[in-house]
Amino acid sequence: MKLKFPLKFSYLLFALLFLTNLSAQIFVPVKWSSRVEKGSNNEVTLVMEGKIEEGWHVYSQFTPEDGPLPIVIDYKNQKGNYTLIGKTSESKTHREFNKDFGVDEVFFEEIVVLKQKIKVLNISLAKINATVDYQVCKDRCVNDTKDFTFDVPKMSLEKSEAPAGANSTVAVVDSTANLQESVLPDTIKKTEVKATENPGNSKSGQKKEKQSLWTIFIGTLLAGFLSTITPCVFPMIPMTVSFFIKQSGTKAKGKFNAFFYGFCIIAIYVLISLPFHIFESLNPDMFSEISTNVYLNLFFFVIFVVFAISFFGAFEITMPNWLASKADNASNSGGLFGIFFMALTLIIVSFSCTGPALGLVLGSVLSTDGGATILTIAMLGFGLGLAFPFIGLALFPGLMTNLPKSGGWLNTVKVVFGFIELALAFKFISNADLVLDTHLLEREVFLAIWIAIFGLLALYLFGKISLPHDSKQDHISVGRMLLGLVSLAFTIYMIPGLWGAPLKLISAFPPPPNYSESPEGVGATSGPSASGTKEVLPPGAVYGPHHIVSFEDYATGLAYAKKVNKPVFLDFTGKACVNCRKTENNVWSDPRVLEILKNDVVLISLFCDLRIELPENEKFISKSTGSAITNVGQKWSEFERERYQSNARPYYVLLDQNENSLNEPMAYEPDVEVYYKWLKESVSRFKK
Question: In angstroms, rounded to a whole number, what is the distance separating the alpha carbons of residues 74 and 132?
Fold first, then answer.
């Protein structure tokens, strides 16, 4: 018996030591706590905070695949009671390369804070349950789960009601901070645009904007002036000027009446643009939406084709006779009131000739995101161009003797306008195709159509083909021959574009080179596939213009920029953006600029007109505009507006890896030297 007791005691002692050792292997390196932060409009924020023991790491939700296990958060009892606003945000994380996994780890040290904003839909909701699965590692790893129960503060019925017409899954954005949670991963902080020494940049921006406005004004002024040399307007010029000079009693009064007549023409066209200012005040993104709206672009295509056919002489587009009659009757009342209606009568009667040109101005401006101010400037230019001959000849009536006589040449001018109108019509259908990404009108097809149109125009000007209202002639004039040579040269210039030539002169019109049957050009000897081996792109990357590796998602591109330690080149662009294509084809193609874009930065192109539907849980309503954000293009437009207070396209921003601006953002800049200097200066600041 004496021998058995010590043996039992030994067994007991061994068991106690074993259990003690076992308990020492149960690690709990994270101590969790939670709280609820009350917001407005029945919104609350669930906060989960963990204190991490020294040396241990908890891995972020955004840890790359094939690495350590990321945090996974499951929100319980959600359906019908509350909806999540965006994704769960995180506190500061660290990033290091793990040679065992071959990826960058994203992890927390010392503390981890997770925040999830929610909108309560059921005011009787008392508690919200959530579970966090996570991995924490040191020299070993522990997988653990933590359950949370949140007490929901009382809500009012009035505030809990969703906005009218809004889906219950649509979140409400009431600030830039909310936007970053709804639109982008929450590790992405709001950009701090630092004041940097960049002398003269704001002045150059103002100068560039003024140059752009002057370009629009001069272009529409020329369009209005060319409209006067059409069969509907040109014969009216000497008749109208003579009427004012002879019927006004004195030359001074005649000149004043003619001047007022011209002023009325200008005023009427400007008045056409005024309603758009009201529409724009109700919806600041109206012009941007018009420029990328598929149905409106198709509508403009049909209108331009109809106008072109009318210019060819198949039929005439006229305003209703009753409208012309009323305006003409009102013009007989005399005085300034009568002169105003004389101007209105001219505009109505000559609509068959000026209408297509006016449609060209309206369509071109409305298909940009320039705003109502740009439209007013365009209409001012068009009206002034149309009124200029009436005013000029009234002030200097002696010049009327030098005017050419009306004749068949007026119809030739009209037909030339018809060819140009037909060519520009295909820009609108191309916009629709680019936005829908159907690839029905790729670059080669578009160029083939233009080559055919301007080739036919050359044949017409050389007299090889004729149309119904053309006069018979045995020779062509010198001017007609020279214009035919220009059309022929332009046709020949476009032909190499079928095999990949950049065609910088018309870069704004055809689809970009990468939107084609042969993105690298027929028989390319360079590019990703020229060597016969396929280049491996980073995950989430695509080839952009000039084979630049680019990302079309902000979070993915930012993560890659941090991985390769390069600045972010943020490109707010559009599938149907004219100035974006001009920049890509004329500026990015410069060897110095292209070298930086390919080697020194990470390009993130955010298409603000992409009509791809967002998942239900990513849709939200912006309080800045009151509009529902339901597709990818709206998401990036909202991001640009909220973060950079801009809705321009193109719009370029260079960021460091903390998302701070390296330089002042840049809008459209056609000057290669200015663009290169801005790009080089920004990259230099990042390296410093």
Answer: 7
Q: What are the Cα distances from residue 506, in Å, to 304, 446, 502, 503?
A: 19, 12, 9, 6
Give percent of the chain with pLDDT exceeding 90.
19
- For every residue of 531-543, DSSP letters joined together read TSSPPPPPTTEEE
Contacts of 510 (CB under 8 A, 6+ apart): 430, 443, 446, 447, 450, 497, 503
Residue 678 contacts residue 601 (beta carbons within 8 Å): no
The rounded distance, in Å, linking the Cα atoms of 638 and 392 is: 48
The tokens for 327 are: 């305006």
Contacts of 560 (CB under 8 A, 6+ apart): 538, 540, 541, 551, 602
SS3 content of the chain, % helix, strand, coil (to 5): 50, 15, 35
> What is the distance between the alpha carbons of residues 58 and 107, in angstroms, rounded to a whole number?
5
Q: Is 0.70 topped by the overall pTM?
A: no
N- to C-terminal Cα separation, the chain? 84
408-436 vs 478-494: helix axis angle to the nearest 10?
20
Exposure letters 308-335 (e unless 16+ CB within 10 A, then b): bbbbbeeeebbeeeeebeebeeebeeee
Instruction: Fill in the amino acid letter for 607.
Output: F
Which pLDDT score, from 0 to 100, does residue 223 have?
Answer: 83
Higher pLDDT, 525 or 396: 396
Q: Give the model's confidence band at 202: pLDDT under 50 very low, under 70 low, under 90 confident, else very high.
A: very low
What does 57-88 look like in DSSP terms, one character per residue? Answer: EEE-TTPPTTSSPPPEEEE-S-TTTEEEEEEE
Element (H, E) at 507: none
Calculate Rg over the CA atoms of the chain.
34
Position 185 pLDDT exceeds 60: no
> Is the pLDDT confidence value at 226 over 80?
yes
* Contact assessment for residue 80 and residue 121, using Cβ atoms and an 8 Å cutoff: yes
